[in-house]
Amino acid sequence: MSKKEPVILSEKDKKNRKNSLIGAAFLMATSAVGPGFLTQTAVFTETLLASFGFVILASIFLDIGAQLNVWRIIAVSRMRGQEIANAVLPGLGFVVAIFIVIGGLAFNIGNIGGAGLGTNALLGFDPRVGAVITAVIAIFIFLSKEAGAAMDQIVKWLGGLLIILIAYVMFVSQPPVGEAIYRSVVPLELDFYAIITIVGGTVGGYITFSGGHRLLDAGISGKESIPEVTRTSVMGILVASFIRIMLFLAVLGVVSAGVNLDPNNPAATVFQHAAGEIGYRMFGLVLWVAGITSVIGAAYTSVSFLRSFHKKIEEYYRYWIIGFIIFSTGVFVFIGEAVTLLILAGAVNGLILPLTLGSILLAAHNKKIIGDYKHPVWLTVFGAIVVLLTTYLGVRTLIQTLPQLF
Q1: Which residues contact 256 (CB under 8 A, 6 or more apart)?
Q2: Is residue 191 assigned to a domain?
Q3: Are 43 and 337 in contact (CB under 8 A)?
Q4: Does the keyword Transmembrane apply (predicted)?
């Protein structure tokens, strides 16, 4: 039996493939770096000071463990997350999809709101006007016939802009870098809750599937693509973590100078103290970029969890994404942040990662799903640890949330 001839790609195909790989990494990273990411990092840094570096370092390893499992199995099986879950246990994929869509919808309201507040800080617009402008830009991207390629480019360039802006504030805030490095290895205090919260915020809910599903749509799948998928998945985590590290150092520089962060807008305090009025405008731009990229990621990934359930959704998926964005924007403009929905989604979101990653780990050793691919044992162990930790966090969050709802 003759060996299969290797596929020779043209220079154009190679360039498109490279753009898709980089785009997938940045889609995942910028989906994680939303308005909540900025606030979360600022609050934990003010609480733990330099020891928050250890939390970030520990979370990076756990994030990589979770993401490598998810992206590899999506690539090898050539199936989306909900299809893998259904193959593991019939009906589980529908449960996962419902959780993902509810969580994605609720957080998208927050992302739209964050983008609106960003335009308010940057240009003085009413947040609702800024939210509508943001939604129109996002919709325009998905109206393009080459929506996937357009999305790859947008998240890549906006992600780069985000890095530049935060890097500037980090440098002018003059953080105690030596202390941060030392405490990243020898922390004064160990906050277990902070570690699993950061893990959930980076790879929880729909986020870890965003890049994996993007690669699938770009035709990058199969066992032969594992090296590329592995590098890209790690790149996504490292980009998100790099942004968090720079923001951590920026906040640390400000709080080390004795500044108390405004509890209503802690990240804004950092930018304003470090760079004055220009810094506050920069914060508005950072918040807007974080908001719109998360809107794109949340809408794209949430709808991708529905595409396999009906041919009409698959056929018109771009319009479903647009509808998702319009609905999220409408809720923010006419109702507000929908606090109860956001609180409930936060609790549900904590249960999504153990559910989805758990099904991925079961699929990783099911020959009917992955064929002759051999999944590394160390990755399975890594994934199992993340499942246990996030299950604990999810249950704890749900217990704390229920009294707020009733």
Answers
A1: 49, 175, 176
A2: yes
A3: no
A4: yes
The mean pLDDT values, 10 residues at a time, for the chain of 406 residues are 52 80 90 86 91 93 91 92 92 89 85 90 90 94 83 89 92 92 90 81 83 89 90 93 94 91 86 88 92 91 88 87 94 74 60 86 91 90 88 76 63
How many structural domains compose the chain? 1
Query: Which domain does 299 fall in, by range?
Result: 19-254+263-405
Give CA separation, 355 vs 105, 156, 213, in Å.
18, 30, 17
The SS3 assignment for 369 reads: helix
d(CA 273, CA 261): 10
* Residue 8 domain-assigned (yes or no): no
The answer to whether residue 199 sits within a structural domain is yes
Report the length, in residues, of the chain: 406
Q: Which two tokens stand for residue 98?
A: 């419902």
- Predicted model pTM: 0.88
How distant, in Å, are the alpha carbons of 68, 239, 278, 282 from that of 28? 13, 9, 29, 23
CATH code of the domain containing 59: 1.20.1740.10
Q: Is residue 296 within 8 Å of 115, Cβ to Cβ?
A: no
